[in-house]
Structures are given as C-alpha cells and as structure tokens.
Amino acid sequence: MTGTATTGSTAESATGSATTELDPAGSAPAGPGATESGATEPAATARPSLRDRYRGQRERARRNRAAEVAWRTGVGIAGSAVLVAGIVMIPYPGPGWVVAFAGLAVLGTEFEPARRALAFLRRGYDRWDAWQRGRHPAVRLLLLAGTGAVVLGTVWLLGALEFGAGLIGLDLPWLASPLG
Fold first, then answer.
1. Residue 2: helix, strand or coil by DSSP?
2. pTM above 0.70?
3. Total tally of structural domains belonging to the chain
4. Is residue 32 part of a domain?
5. Per the domain annotation, does 47 fall within a domain?
6. Compositionally biased, Low complexity: which spans (predicted)?
C-alpha cells in the first residue's frame, strides 16, 4: 500500500512499514507518548506528591537554623491566623469548627502542644456531637434556638442590625448596639 491509510488506521510508508497512528480526524496524535485517543501516557518519572515535596522542604529547613526559625515562625503566624478566624466563626452558621481545627492542624505540624490540643478538642467535639444526636428532637431544637440567640446577640452587639436597618431606610433606635 502506498501513501497514507484512511482515518483510524495506521499510516504506512511506500515500503509498507507502519509509522504513525492516525486519530479519527485523520491526523497524527498530539506528541510523543500520545495514544490513538490523543491522551498522553504517564511520564516515566512521576512527580512527587505534595506531601513528599513538603517533607523534603521541611527537611532542608531543619538543616539550617535560620531557615528552621523562619519556617516555624511562618507556621506559627499562619496557623494562629487560621485558628483565630475559626474561633471567631464558631458561633455563626458555617465552617467555624472546621476552620478552627484546620488552624490547630497547621500549628500541630510544628508544635506538639497544638497537636495535643487538637486531639483533645476532637475527642470533646465528638462526644458533644454524639450526645446531642442522641437527644430528643425538642432538645436539639432548643440547642439550635440557643445558638441562634448567641448569633443574634453577637450581631446586635457588633452593631450589624442597626447598620442593616439603616441600609434599607429604617430608623429603629432599639437596634443600636449598647457598645456604641
């Protein structure tokens, strides 16, 4: 056979030896290692995982005192910021507990007391969750109402209710925060 073969078959040279696979559109695949469908095969050397790259960088930092101090300081600042943000969010609907636990997890990568605190708080949270799930629905509704009251009280104290009322043109002095 001379020339090239039709779509989806093997292109052959004038001597009859196969040279390239053609895709259904009739063109060659997109580069070395590409299959007939156009997907590329995995490279011979896989890229290290994120965890392995982190461990490698962490080990390099441990060998240098200045890098060690900088690393621990950075982890301390970042973890503390996430932890504080999580604590602030706890009374509100949303991911407060998750963010707080994430902050402790970040701190726990470098500081043993944070690792122990995270384990302790996880156990306490799991016990609380199991306890409240085992209660009568009326008790759970009371817990929900209590959480709502805390959220509403905090929003009022921060002046957000008065601000929101002002945005829609309401002048309700009883929404003003006592904190000013």
1. coil
2. no
3. 1
4. no
5. no
6. 1-41
Q: Which two tokens stand for residue 31?
A: 């580069």
pLDDT at 142: 96
> Which alpha helices (H) appear in the chain, and where do they start and end?
50-62, 65-89, 96-108, 112-133, 137-157, 160-167
Asked whether residue 15 is assigned to any structural domain, the reply reads no
**Whether the Cβ atoms of residue 104 and residue 121 lie closer than 8 Å to each other:** yes
Residue 140 CA to residue 132 CA, distance in Å, equals: 7
**pLDDT tens per residue, range 113-149:** 999 999 998 899 899 999 999 999 999 999 999 988 9
Q: Which amino acid is at 179?
A: L
> Does residue 103 lie within any of the structural domains?
no
Long-range CB contacts for residues 33-41, cutoff 8 Å, separation at least 24? 36/8
β-pairing, 18-21 vs 10-12, is: antiparallel
- Full residue range of the structural domain in which residue 175 is found: 136-180
d(CA 65, CA 71): 10
pLDDT digits (tens, 9 = 90+) for 33-90: 555 555 555 555 788 888 888 888 888 888 888 888 998 999 999 999 999 999 988 8
Q: Which residues contact 67 (CB under 8 A, 6 or more apart)?
A: 60, 61
